[in-house]
Structure formats: structure tokens, C-alpha cells
Amino acid sequence: MTTVMSKQEKIIIFTDGGARGNPGPAAIGVVIKDASGHTIKSYGEAIGETTNNEAEYRAVISALAKVKALLGKEKVKNIALEINMDSELVKKQLNGEYRIEEEKLFPFFIKIWNLRMDFGEVKFHHIPRERNKEADRLVNEALDKEQQNLF
What we know:
Blueprint: E1 9-19, E2 24-34, E3 39-50, H1 52-71, E4 79-85, H2 88-94, H3 106-116, E5 121-126, H4 133-149
Parallel strand pairs: 1-4, 4-5
Antiparallel strand pairs: 1-2, 2-3
Helix pairs in contact: 1-3
């Protein structure tokens, strides 16, 4: 008997997190695309005062949770995620290439580890900042909007 494996659906995600000051006012940016590059969802959100690294982690957490909410728990089991970020440190920590030495990052790492178990496959990639402009723009727009709300 021959079984035909169905091709795993792929979702491509771009994340960014940033803080003005380190720590300082921070925000995340997330762009979720299908395999052909069409944007499914994009958003930026201010997340309060934190560090750049914490913001980078929180962007990945938000992206994983958003994909799960958009597609549903059953469908994501067959989804391959490609998560692109311009933080080489966070990418290497998530791939187990670097140890996490900053204690405050452990809970974020564990949250991502638990969320990724719901998906078929999750790969983390480092990309140059120039290829992450859309997520970066969303971070800056969220920070600018938050700053305007203070006045």
C-alpha cells in the first residue's frame, strides 16, 4: 500500500522588537505571510518598558500565538513556520547555538518552546535588517503612536 504524504503548508513570519533606550519604551512588529508571499496579517504593538532582547522574544511569542489564533489549533499541527528576525542573538538562542545567560529571558524562551510544539515544524532564521523593514517599520510606528499618546 502506498501512502501519499500531503505537502506541509508553509507560513513565513517576520518579527522585530525594539526599545528606545535599553531598557526603554518598547514595541513589537510582526508580519505573517503565506508561502507565496501574500501578507495574511501584520501589526505593531507597544509593550511598555523593556529591553531590546525581551522585545525580540515577545515579538516571536506574539507571532506564534497569532498564527495559532488565526488558523486554529488543529490546522497548525500541519503548518511549517519560517520565522525571520534580524536579532542574531535571539535566533541563535532559540536554535540552541547560544546559551541564555540573561535570566529575564528564560520565561520567554520556555513560552516559545511550548508554543512551537503545537506546530508541524518551526525554523528560526537570521536575516539582515534590510530584509526586515516591514516589521521594523511596525515597531517604530507603534513606538511613535505610544509617544504621541503621552502628550
